[in-house]
Amino acid sequence: MKIRIIPRLRRDQIAERYRDAPQERSARVSHMLETLSMQDLTHMGLRRANREVPDPPYEPFAIWLSWEAAQKIAQLPEHTSVSAIVQNILRHDPDRPVH
Predict the structure, then answer these.
(1) 3-state secondary structure of 93
(2) Which of 28, 41, 59, 63 shows a CA-CA span of 20 to 30 A to 94?
């Protein structure tokens, strides 16, 4: 079962290989959500959530999550920005660490 989310992301801050590749983008996000600790995810999600005015321009990107990844997102603290987490995950190539 897959769960769809539509975070608002900055295209210019997404690694080129994920910008127009929805399947690769979804696989990367699901894998990293399943792999990273709750502490790391919360830390990534609080950075943008704490800004008063986000930097434009953001656009919606559909991401299909695995059931396990969706369950992990559901456990995040209330004020955690899922968009910030996804942006950080997609900013990097798979060979480079996320943080």
Answers:
(1) coil
(2) 59
Say what the pLDDT of residue 96 is.
60
Number of H helices, E strands in the chain: 5, 4
How much is the pTM? 0.85
Closest to 28 in 3D by CA, of 94, 81, 82, 75: 94
Q: Which residues of 25-59 are buried (b: 16+ CB within 10 A; e: fewer)?
A: bbbbbbebbeebeeeebbbbbbebbeeeeeeeeee
Q: Which residue has 């900013």 as its token pair?
A: 91
Q: What is the mean pLDDT of the chain?
A: 88
Which residue type, as a one-letter code, is found at position 83? S
